[in-house]
Design goal:
The complex is a heterodimer of chains A (672) and B (189). Chain A has 672 residues and is mainly α. Chain A contains 24 helices and 2 strands. Chain A has a two-stranded antiparallel sheet with strand order 1-2. Classes of the chains: A mainly alpha (672), B mainly alpha (189).
Chain lengths: 672, 189
């Protein structure tokens, strides 16, 4: 097939010659066409981006300088400025990225576990950065104004709560923490001009957070999506990718290299088996198809049952914990450890379900006789559904009870105060006559706080009390049956889902517990070090290859889903007529509702801005706007289709050209 | 590092920064590592060559199946023995650095994979490439039948003009759509 390459004329083809020049620059240097070769490069490309050796770069540089002399003053000056600007911009990015240390850690992890695991840590770092920015916004727009406004006033509305601080409160978010800037209730203010400013700032800060998160997450998703779309099904080049970009050049370790060889071989074999699999699928008899579908339906029912069961468990746990809390007397008699468990019951149930079920789903998907990628994606989709839906259902239940509380007309006055402990327990809840208005927003913030803290605790326990001892056993008795069964791997999908879940909780709770972003920042830092310890100390490199990119899009997409759920939840809970739940008389919107704040702040604006806003709101503008959007979208869609067609045509042309070339070559050589 | 820093003149250092994707620290580190490879008596200059065997002892390269190809591609030696000067070494690190462009990385990747240096990846090149990836011993190699199937799959996907080989532009076309490539084609000292 390659015989015609040895035809001499092929060497003289222009395309082959230009390639040769690039290949062997030192040969060209001696021949007469050296200036031609140097001039080949686009002058706007920086020298460092030329695929030639150092000596050639120097020559090119000299040549460029000559050309610059020949150019007009203005042109050369602008070119130099452009280069300078570019260089300083690169410098800026480098400095900015070096602010986040851990680069070395990332390289180390990448060297030992490949890019898949590194991608997880990069994702973690990204979330950490996001939360840091959100925290700064919160502190600037929400916390500081309130602190300034409140001054040293410690007692609210004449209610002074003196409580004893305890460790349990930190974990539960109860007691003394109830009245700190941690929760919504603290950002309260009496009516007045200043108050409105504070409320407006609160609203503005929250809007800022959501918009910023949305923009950042969408940006990441879209970048990834573009790649996957281009590499999508209509031009599948997966095997070439595995071959051409299969080797991870970062690997420095012999055993890791060995492992990579094995991974690649296994994956290639798997792909070849996939071909066989597809052939087998096409040869299945009707009987086999029927039995397979029955099996799949049964397994899906099982999955649904598992999901339903876990949702029911969450329901039961939430109800139980609510009822326990309602009967204060019962609560006060129990020991603190029972209080802790009762308070955390929903969180424990959710986390346990989230821990166990994805593993079960993976096992189930094996039996369904899908191809491997479908199995992995199916597990991922089911797990994502579980994670987000369990959170959503938990919140739904919370609202349901709140609504029923409201409907019963039972205005909850209750006490969450504590007297100094008389016993040895660090916290001993006893009831006292002090009453203060129950703030359901606070309570909701508390639930989210608990979920967040418990998530951290769970991963801490998982790493130090399950994974680490397992690892120890494996090292101690490497030959035992137990050791072989306990081989641990870093399951990237599950870990990333954990991150997505915790971020969703943060977004959900941020309105009611503004400092949750700060907590999330601290938490993610802790998680980073914990996972680093986990991956470097306890994990064996994974046996299955992880395609970073296609899954990362899915991760960002789930993150986006989480954000959307949080945003929907917030808008629903703010519009009180939908849920039928009255906002409680606490927090920044106690004396003034959200819509009032908005309308008042619009009222301050100058007249023409007001009228402009009013016009923008009207139907006369809205309808044409939608029309224009539709037109633009249609335009883009048809352009995309046209591009696809052009690609096909160009491909055909390439094949045509090449066959023409081959034909001419044959003619030529036979003629000679 | 102070001692080695003084060995590299300042103007040369800034020129290297200009001509490569490396930062000042990376260049200094590269210089330090390179001087360690040179034998004691030989002072490092622009023309000192380190034989390929010595370069291959670097931990960053020693477990890489393409190490010899990398040396050959970046070597400017007339003898084609894969020996590197310091500047060749910098070229190597620059192409493999974090900030190198996809364009340059794919260009060098193509040359590394082009085992017979004829400017295209033909069946022989692809076979060698796959063997490098899976490990080149009797029991790790793919069977002949598997190899045949695999190569025909590769060509079917990436040989756009259907001439039986993958040329540079086809290679870059395929690689540009592999988002993992830039992050994996990387050697950091």
């Amino acid at each position: 097939m390659t015989a015609y390459y040895h035809t001499e004329i092929y060497q003289h083809l222009p395309s082959s010659q230009s390639h040769r020049r690039q290949l062997r620059p030192q040969d060209g240097e001696t021949s007469d066409d050296s200036p031609l070769m140097v001039r080949d490069w686009n002058p706007s490309l920086p020298l460092s981006a030329l695929p030639i050796c150092m000596q050639m770069k120097r020559l090119t540089n000299d040549l460029r300088q000559q050309q610059r002399h020949n150019l007009g003053n203005w042109k050369s000056w602008s070119q130099i400025q452009y280069i300078k600007l570019k260089r300083s911009r690169d410098q800026f990015y480098k400095v900015a990225s070096s602010l986040f240390q851990w680069r070395h850690t990332l390289i180390k992890i990448e060297g030992r576990f490949g890019m898949g695991v590194k991608a997880y840590f990069v994702f973690l770092k990204y979330l950490l950065g996001l939360n840091l920015i959100l925290s700064i916004i919160i502190i600037g727009a929400v916390l500081i104004p309130t602190l300034v406004y409140k001054g040293n006033v410690e007692c609210l509305k004449g209610i002074c709560i003196r409580e004893k601080f305890s460790v349990l409160d930190i974990v539960l978010g109860s007691g003394v923490l109830q009245n700190t800037p941690l929760f919504y209730g603290y950002y309260e203010c009496e009516s007045g001009e200043k108050c409105m400013n504070n409320s407006l700032l609160f609203l503005l800060g929250m809007t800022c957070i959501f918009v910023l998160s949305l923009v950042m997450v969408i940006r990441r998703t879209v970048i990834g999506y573009k790649h996957t779309w281009i590499t999508g099904s209509h031009n599948n080049v997966s095997i070439s990718h595995k071959i051409f970009s299969g080797w991870d050049f970062c690997i420095q370790d012999d055993s890791a290299a060995m492992l990579k060889h094995n991974l690649i071989r296994n994956e290639l074999k798997m792909d070849l088996e996939d071909h066989v699999f597809h052939r087998r699928v096409s040869q299945r008899t009707l009987r086999q198809w029927i039995s397979l579908y029955v099996l799949r339906i049964l397994l899906n029912v099982l999955v649904l049952a598992l999901l339903g069961g876990s949702f029911y468990m969450i329901f039961v746990a939430t109800r139980y914990s609510k009822e326990k809390k309602k009967s204060n007397v019962a609560l006060s008699q129990d020991s603190w450890i029972i209080n802790l468990i009762v308070g955390y019951l929903p969180a424990i149930t959710i986390t346990t379900a989230n821990y166990l079920l994805p593993r079960a789903f993976r096992k189930i998907s094996v039996f369904e006789d899908y191809s491997l990628t479908v199995q992995l994606n199916l597990t991922l989709i089911r797990s994502t559904f579980l994670k987000l839906a369990s959170l959503g259902i938990y919140i739904l239940f919370l609202y349901k009870w709140r609504k029923s509380d409201n409907q019963n007309g039972e205005i909850s006055f209750r006490c969450e105060c504590q007297t100094p402990p008389n016993s040895t327990f660090p916290s001993n809840n006893t009831t006292e006559g002090v009453q203060f208005v129950m703030c359901w927003e606070n309570d909701f913030g508390k639930q989210m706080y608990q979920l967040s803290v418990f998530d951290l605790l769970a991963s801490f326990i998982n790493i130090f009390f399950i994974s680490f001892p397992t690892k120890w056993i494996r090292e101690r008795y490497p030959l035992s049956v137990l050791a072989r069964r306990l081989n641990q791997q870093f399951e990237i999908t599950l870990h990333v889902l954990d991150l997505v879940y915790s971020q969703t909780v943060t977004w959900m709770g941020v309105f009611y517990c503004p400092l949750l972003t700060c907590i999330a920042t601290v938490k993610l830092t802790a998680v980073f070090y914990m996972k680093k310890f986990f991956v470097l100390r306890c994990c064996a490199p994974a046996q299955k290859m992880f395609r970073t990119h296609s899954s990362l899009v899915l991760f960002h997409f789930t993150l986006l889903l989480g954000l959307l759920i949080a945003a929907i939840h917030l808008s629903v809970s703010l519009g009180d007529d939908v849920t039928g739940i009255r906002p409680s008389p606490c927090g920044p919107f106690s004396s003034i509702t959200v819509s009032e704040v908005l309308s008042k702040s619009v009222g301050i604006l100058p007249d023409f801005v007001q009228s402009a806003l009013r016009t923008m709101n009207s139907k006369a503008v809205g309808l044409p706007l939608i029309m224009v959007e539709i037109v633009i979208l249609t335009c883009f869609a048809s352009r995309g289709q046209a591009n696809n067609k052009t690609i096909e045509r160009l491909k055909g042309m390439l094949v045509m050209c090449n066959s023409d070339k081959r034909f001419l070559l044959k003619q030529h050589s036979s003629g000679m | 590092m102070g001692a080695t820093a003084s060995q590299l003149p300042k103007d040369l250092l800034s020129e290297y920064q200009e001509l490569t994707f490396l930062t000042k620290q990376e260049i200094l580190l590269a210089h330090k590592r390179f001087t360690e490879l040179v034998t004691r008596e030989g002072r490092t200059s622009a023309v000192t060559r380190v034989p390929m065997e010595k370069i291959l002892t670097l931990p960053e390269l020693k477990s890489n199946p393409f190490r010899k190809r990398i040396c050959h591609v970046f070597s400017t030696s007339e003898l084609k023995d894969g020996s590197l000067t310091f500047e060749d070494f910098l070229d190597l690190l620059s192409a493999f650095s974090d900030s190198a462009t996809l364009e340059i990385k794919s260009h060098y990747a193509f040359r590394i994979f082009d085992f017979d240096d004829d400017g295209t990846l033909d069946q022989g090149d692809l076979e060698k490439l796959v063997n490098c990836l899976t490990g080149d011993t009797e029991d790790t190699r793919l069977t002949t039948e598997e190899m045949r199937q695999l190569i025909s799959n590769i060509l079917e996907e990436s040989d756009i003009d259907k001439d039986g080989t993958v040329n540079l532009s086809e290679f870059q076309h395929v690689i540009s759509r592999s988002p993992d490539f830039v992050s994996s084609f990387k050697i950091v000292l």
